[in-house]
Structures are given as structure tokens and as C-alpha cells.
Amino acid sequence: MPELPEVETVKRELAKKVTGCTIAHTKIYLVKTIQKPDPESFVKCIQNSRINSVKRRGKYLLFYLSNHLCLAAHLKMTGHFSVCGQGSALHKHTRVVFSLDNGCDLRFVDTRTFGVMYLLCQKEMDQFKPLACLGPEPLSDAFTAQYLFETGHQRTLPIKAFLLNQSFACGLGNIYVDESLFRAGILPDRRTNTLSKDEWAALTLTIKEVLQEGIQHRGTSIQSYTSTDGRPGGYQDRLLVYGKDQRPCVRCGTPIQKQKTAGRGTHFCPTCQR
Ligand SMILES: [Zn+2]
After folding, report:
1. Active site residue: 17, 56, 59, 190, which one?
2. How far apart are CA 131 and CA 106, in angstroms?
3. Could you give all domains of the chain from N- to C-terminal order, each with its CATH number?
4. Positions in the chain short of pLDDT 50
């Protein structure tokens, strides 16, 4: 699933390509992609809206539109946006097409069909649960060691489950959590109430570092993720533990282990992480 660096990469590319464009008309090929409102109202409300800006919150892409509307989209497993000429052939898994006034389409292709879109009034966004429940952005100033300590130290969750919970740390997923924990030297199944203040501080730093590097390399392409123009990201070549099952640890040579933590395949070094 695309995580913060992948969604941020998509956001930056879309912002360049579609900001200022007006949505002339919309065609929905898969009704279930549109979660809110009903498809007919969706098409009608969004027509002639201008895309004022493209932003990101956690793993959500937010298209701020004129008419006080916001289109929130979650890529889930395989959702993918592209911008192409209106005459170009339609991919067979195309779910929604927004035809823009500049002769281009903004297309949403989604093989596994878990991707979703919501059309919201900007003023109702604070009450819209999936967005309202998100914790602070890990790259923001609000995401500090003190915040993580205060949120985590009275809980007894495995640290991996804690970091995957979007209401504590939004935008993180399996890959970047494994990488951050490895760099911070913390085992993924350590309970949050056992982490020292120094460990929370180290983890805060490594999370920010790993995410920033992920963005610099335009995300990680392991399964299906590519950016809006079909180019893969480059961070998969820099991963230290994720997907490295049985390969020697870059720091100590011990074979990297894989286990299930928080229901997810989790990679770690049993020597470097405690
Ligand atoms: Zn090691």
C-alpha cells in the first residue's frame, strides 16, 4: 500500500499537472469507488469545479476545489492517478475519469478496487471521521519525542502496532515502520510502555529521516506503486530490512528475521534491535 512518501510524491506531481484546471465532466466506471455522496450527486456537484490546490493528509490526497468542496481520495492497495490526453486509450481497470478543461483527463485506475473517494464540503472536513481521527503528520513540528512518549508510554501495544495506527502517527505503513525501528534499534514487538525517553527520541528522528529519504527518492516501488507518470520510485534500493528476510544485516551480518507483528509481515535484526 502506498505510504506517506508515495502519496506525497503523487501529490507533488498532481499539484503541478492539475492545479488551476476545471473539471468539465466526470465519468464513473466503478460506483463503489465513490463513497460519498451518491454517484449522481458526485458528478453533478463536482462539475465546473476548479482545482485550487492538491494537498495530502496522512495517506489521503486532498483536491481543494472551488465551490468550497474537497475531493478526498485514498489509493489503498493499488489506486493510481494519471494525467493524460483525452484521446488516449483507457486502461481496463479505470474507475473514474475527470475530464479537465485543458484537454487532459485525470484518471483513477485501481486493479484491486479498494481505492475510495469522498466529495466533502470543506467546512465538514473536521467532522469527517477518516480525516478527523488522523494523528499528527510525522514530518510536522507537532510530531515530537514528547508527543510520542505521552501517547505511547501508558499503552502496552507492540511498538509496531502503535506506529501503524493512523490516529497516533498518520501516513506510516509496514515498510517505513520496519525501516524506522531498525534504525532506532528497537524490536517491533517491544511494548510501548517499555520504551525509554531516549528510545522515543531516537525513533522520532529515524521516522522523520526515513520518510524524508523516501520522499527524496520518490517513494518505494515494491508491488504495484508507480508515480503519476508510471515511473517507479527509487527507495526500494535503499531499504535496510524490509523484504531482506535471511539476508545479512548491513550493520552486523546477522540474518534478518521475518515474523508476524500486528498482523503484518515484519522484518528486523535480532542483534541490532532490542
Ligand atoms: Zn544487525
Report:
1. 59
2. 23
3. 4-122 (3.20.190.10), 145-268 (1.10.8.50)
4. none
Cα–Cα distance measured from residue 92 to residue 113, given in angstroms and rounded to the nearest whole number: 12
Annotation says 213 is catalytic: no
User: How far is Cα 108 from Cα 27, in angstroms, rounded to an integer?
Assistant: 11
Phi, psi of 265 (to 5 degrees): -60, 120
Q: What pLDDT is recorded for position 121?
A: 96
pLDDT at site 53: 98
pLDDT of amino acid 229: 84
d(CA 262, CA 158): 7
The one catalytic residue in 155, 232, 264, 270 is 264
| Beta-carbon neighbours within 5 Å of ion ligand 1 | 249, 251-252, 254, 269, 271-272
pTM to 2 decimal places: 0.96
C-alpha–C-alpha distance, residues 88 and 252, integer Å: 51
Q: 132: Cβ–Cβ under 8 A, 6 or more apart, which residues?
A: 125, 126
Question: What's residue 117's pLDDT?
Answer: 98
